[in-house]
Amino acid sequence: MTSLFETMIETFATVLEPSRILFMVLGVFIGLTIGFLPGLSGTVGMSLLLPFVFGMDPATGIALLIGMMAVLHSGDTFPSVLLGIPGSSGSQATIMDGYPLAQKGQAVRALGAAFFCSMVGGVIGGLILFLVIPLLRPLVLLFGSPELFMLALLGLSFVGILAGKRPILGILAGLVGMLLGTVGTAPAVPEYRYTFDSLYLYNGIQLPLVALGLFAFPVLIDLLASNESISRGAKLTGSWVQGIKDSIKNKWLVVRSAVLGASIGFIPGLGGSVVDWISYGISKQTSENPENFGKGDIRGVIAPESANNAKEGGTLIPTLMFGIPGSGTTAILLGGLILMGIESGPRMVTDDLPITMSIIWTLIIANIIGVIACLSLTKPIAWFSTVHPTKLVPFITIIIVVGAFQTTQHWGDILLFLALGIVGWIMKQLDWPRAPILIGFVLAMSAERYLWISFSHYGVEWLTRPGVIVIALLCIVVVISSLLQSKKKQSMTQTNDSGVKS
User: Fold this and answer.
1) Which of 135, 209, 264, 378 holds its CA 20 to 30 A away from the CA of 424?
2) How far is 69 from 49, CA to CA, in rounded Å?
């Protein structure tokens, strides 16, 4: 424990170096920009940064990535409150009371409460991540290559939950992602797979291209197709100081929602669009006057905003300790760490413990910087949301194309980006899950390597190890539960449809 605190203090000094702070602020600015533009999810934002972190110093790259990740759910509060449009899936519940408050002329009050709670939630999420490390450290160190391979399969099995109503499609998409991840050089033997005699494919398909193609390209097409500005104008009235006072008055609701958010974030597949609704529902059920919710009750803003930022600390626990990304955003973060030469798993609590601590500090500090920026940039951001897509899309397109070409600086990057972009757009139109492809792609190389090591060292005996059996049973339970949940939702939908028809 002593070494843990010493490492944390030493890492704090490293995080505060001017170059790190500069990249952290840059990440915060990009995260807020992505957050307050509806449709541009965290997955898009993270994928934009991937080409630029390749080969970057780990501490600097982490400052950029975590700085953006920490404030995504702060920036998306703007469209949720001002326009009644969710900036991302994590800000849907905020609309329930945030937008009615804005209609009452109390928009800035709602924003002040939301930003303050986001900051507190983010800090609590970071502290929970730190407190969990000593508890998980002995468990993580017991994991060998067989258990790590099974954890990769467990991460793949969670994509059924992420796929929502179509778990089978989610699992198939995850397998397609793993297949894409096997293109190029094999990790264990000197062989090339699925290159079709193309020198460009010898090094495999690069993660930034997959992320940009599947998520960024479809957004550009949809923005142009809509031909409408994000906002037609929104008034900002009231005082954000009053919102902070409201949050302090409901301090136990803030703490409870933040702990709940971090706890839910720890479970892969249950973060994102779920955590804010769960927090909102519990807050409404446990309040003295639940009838006020949905009519402009400030508690309806405090609860989800405290939870969705705290969730980021929870999602980092399985991502860093076990290499299980529970969402598209954490899958890209995992890929970004790989691009910087960092591999998640047991090393994150031993040799790479300083990197883990720098992530915690960056998460906490970025949340504070993000809230200060949000409060000071309220009016400029509201104006920016009125920019017409014909002016906004060309700017974003340049960034995306440069990012795609920056991957290997080969013309094949552009062609592959366009091909994957068309596939991503078609999948979006058909409502097929895209995040599982990304998760499967990220898990492919580590899963193959751990499988090869397991057979090399243990033969087939590794299949009888207790840890392998336990994780295999968890995989089966997760897949079956996702199938049952899907059938239950379908039956409820059919029941509601029949009731409406009758």
Assistant:
1) 264
2) 11
Distance between CA 345 and CA 454 in Å, rounded? 16
Whose tokens are 């994150």? That residue is: 348
What pLDDT was estimated at residue 230?
43
What phi and psi, each to the nearest 5 degrees, are found at residue 380? -60, -40
DSSP secondary-structure letter at 272? T
Using CA atoms, how far apart are residues 206 and 413, in angstroms rounded to an integer? 9
Q: Is 434 left (phi over 0), alpha (psi -120 to 50) or beta?
A: alpha
Six-digit token pair at 240? 């954000």
CA pair distance 157, 144, nearest whole angstrom: 20
CA proximity to 223, closest of 36, 78, 400, 387: 387
Query: Is the CB of residue 47 less than 8 Å from the CB of residue 211?
Result: yes
How far apart are the C-alpha atoms of 312 and 88, rounded to whole Å? 14
- What is the model's pLDDT at position 232? 45
Which residues in the chain land under pLDDT 50? 1-2, 230-234, 382, 385, 500
- The whole model's pTM is what? 0.65
Cα–Cα distances in angstroms (integers) from residue 359 to residues 9, 44, 118, 266, 373, in the given order = 13, 21, 18, 16, 20
Written as six digits, the tokens of 203 are: 């090094």
List C-alpha distances in Å: 29 to 41, 71, 136, 435: 15, 9, 33, 24
Q: How far apart are CA 441 and CA 422, in angstroms?
A: 18
Exposure on the CB side of residue 263, measured as CA atoms within 13 A:
8
- Straight-line distance from the first to the last Cα atom of the chain, in angstroms, rounded to the nearest whole number: 64
- Tokens 């702990």 locate to 259
What kind and span of H or E run contains 355? helix 353-376
Q: For position 496, what pLDDT does the model report?
A: 57
CA distance linking residue 414 with residue 410, whole number of Å = 8
Are 161 and 269 in contact, with CB atoms under 8 Å apart?
yes
* pLDDT value for 473: 92
